[in-house]
Specification:
The chain is an alpha+beta fold and 390 residues long. 50% of the residues lie in helices and 14% in strands. A hairpin with a 2-residue loop joins strand 2 and strand 3. Helix 1 packs parallel to helix 3, helix 3 packs across helix 6 and helix 3 packs across helix 7. Bound molecules: flavin-adenine dinucleotide. Flavin-adenine dinucleotide (FAD) binds next to strand 1, strand 3, helix 10 and helix 11.
């Protein structure tokens, strides 16, 4: 594995650091204080577009099948870590095709890429898209979803409810995971593009959440929502056995090291706050303080290395399922520990609720929940390494 970071990568990380400090941290703190997501009309989003953010990785119509704008997973992870250092919630608030992009790139027809990713090639305004899997009765057990898709003439009718979906009320379209037969589990799942404004799509309610307040997590309902056959991800032909569920898992597999990198960023921020406080209060000489800080610094480094290995394997086009899950399970835990130790060291200063360490403590927990909880990652690792039965 190559550890060296070249000059270009270092420049990109430095740019992310500068952006994070100047933009992400203040906007994130503002949203946290307001306990509300960054509003759609906020000038922050126009500045994102002006910097060329919010675009798709799809290379555009006529590009060779599978062609993407050049991507480098390791670089993506390093940037994800640096930006999360400044504010993880703001990363998710940033416009772009987001979580479902990977599924559309992997499974979508040419027409679907053009229709749904096309507007993200050179976005004329801040645009978002989102992926809706979770339901009030189906989180970790994604096979248990109940949103029903019923064939109706040349289209489909969708009925159900989704919750905790990132950016749902502001998204141009939502990739909705549904089942054609709840008794058949994963094999019966399909994903549908549901465009904003489609009759029957509604009941948007922004959830209250403990951290990551900069972006909205939203519940909504689908009541007799009619979508044309063309909105079935990949079209009918791609729906050989379990393809719908595979598309969803593709999305999560690609996302795990990114969440891990975000968690490393949060952990680093918590560690820096602890060191700063200990130094300012002349506590670094105390064994108890020094040992706590050393233990966290060591664990942050370990999490970072596992995360980079997951990225490096992906860049070599090699399987990284174990490393992806390991990085997420480990980094999310380290982020929580780092923030918890920080709160302990800061004592009353941290507990008052207006110090960054307290926000990091609230933000860190979500890293263990999103895109597969820590327990689920450990199950995946066990299945791969010691053949735990499914
Ligand atoms: C900030 C945030 C953003 C989110 N964004 C999205 C989004 O954009 N789109 C989307 O679809 N969803 C989203 N989610 C939902 C997220 O994917 C779910 O919260 C997650 O899958 C866990 O589901 P759950 O909360 O229902 O917990 P449950 O599945 O009910 O789990 C509860 C507890 O039981 C444990 N558990 C469950 N099953 C097992 C098992 N088999 N073995 C051992 N332990 C187990 C879990 O680890 C957890 O600790 C988001 C959630 C959060 C917090």
């Amino acid at each position: 594995m190559e550890f060296a970071i070249d000059a270009t990568t270092r420049d990109r990380i430095e740019q992310a650091r500068e952006l994070g400090e100047r933009e992400f941290r203040p906007v994130g703190l503002e949203a946290d204080r307001n306990a509300a997501p960054i509003p759609v009309g906020h000038p922050f989003f126009d500045r994102c577009l002006a910097r060329g953010e919010g675009r798709t990785r799809w290379a555009g119509p006529g590009a060779a099948a599978g062609a993407l704008r050049k991507s480098n997973v390791t670089l993506t992870l390093l940037i994800a870590e640096e930006l999360a250092y400044w504010d993880r919630g703001v990363i998710n608030a940033t416009p772009g095709p987001g979580l479902p992009e990977q599924s559309v790139l992997g499974m979508g027809t040419d027409e679907q890429k053009e229709r749904y990713l096309g507007p993200f090639l050179e976005p004329d305004r801040p645009r978002w898209a989102c992926f809706a899997m979770t339901e009030p009765g189906a989180g970790s057990d994604a096979a248990a979803i109940r949103t029903l898709a019923r064939k109706d003439g040349d289209g489909w009718i969708l009925n159900g409810a989704k919750c905790f979906i990132g950016g749902a009320s502001r998204s141009d379209w939502i990739l909705v995971q549904a089942t054609v037969d709840p008794s058949k589990g994963r094999a019966a799942q399909r994903a549908f593009f549901v465009e904003q404004g489609t009759p029957g799509l509604g009941g948007f309610k922004i959830e209250k959440k403990m951290g990551l307040k900069a972006y909205e997590s939203t519940s909504f309902t689908l009541e007799d929502v009619r979508v044309p056959a063309a909105n079935l991800l990949g079209g009918e032909v791609r729906y050989e056995r379990r393809a719908g569920f595979k598309a969803a898992m593709q999305t999560f597999n690609a996302g795990r090291p990114v969440i891990a990198a975000n968690a490393v960023g949060i952990a680093r921020a918590a560690l820096d706050e602890s060191i700063r406080f200990a130094r300012d209060h002349d506590l670094l000489g105390r064994d108890r303080v020094r040992d706590r800080i050393e233990a966290i610094a060591r664990r942050v480094r370990k999490a970072r290395l596992v995360c980079l290995r997951a990225g490096w394997l992906a860049d070599q086009q090699r399987a990284n399922i174990v490393e992806a899950s390991m990085s997420k399970a480990l980094a999310a835990q380290v982020a929580q520990e780092a923030a918890s130790v920080g709160l302990e060291l800061l004592g009353l200063t941290g507990g008052r609720g207006d110090h960054l360490i307290e926000k990091l403590y609230r933000d860190a927990k979500a890293m263990d929940i999103v895109e597969g909880t820590g327990q689920i990652q450990r199950m995946i690792i066990a299945r791969q390494l010691v053949g735990l039965p499914r």
